[in-house]
TrEMBL record:
It comes from Deinococcus xianganensis. This is Transposase. One of its GO terms (molecular function) is transposase activity. GO terms for biological process: DNA transposition. Pfam families: HTH_Tnp_1.
Length: 89
């Protein structure tokens, strides 16, 4: 099976169409080319966000991952320095 990559704008449009209630979720997913499971996962992730909010969410997730990586590296350095200090005593 082919994995398709959908943009945030496309996903949000799908969620907004579903919110209107004109078509069932199954029909929208069939027209869009995704599974209902993907739809509900996107609904859980994006909820009632707009396109701008989704982009901001993506930026915040990237920033959070970067900061967590920095904190992890600092923690390793602190632990290594503590080991060196304990060996000198």
């Amino acid at each position: 099976m082919k994995n398709r990559q959908f943009s945030e704008d496309q996903i949000i449009k799908l969620l907004q169409d579903a919110k209107k209630g004109e078509k069932s979720v199954e029909d929208l997913c069939r027209d869009f080319g995704c599974s209902p499971a993907s739809f509900y996962a996107w609904k859980k992730k994006y909820g009632d966000t707009t396109a701008g909010e989704a982009k901001r969410l993506r930026q915040l997730e990237k920033e959070n991952a970067r900061l967590l990586k920095i904190v992890g590296q600092q923690r390793l350095e602190i632990d290594a320095m503590k080991d060196v200090i304990q060996k000198k005593r």
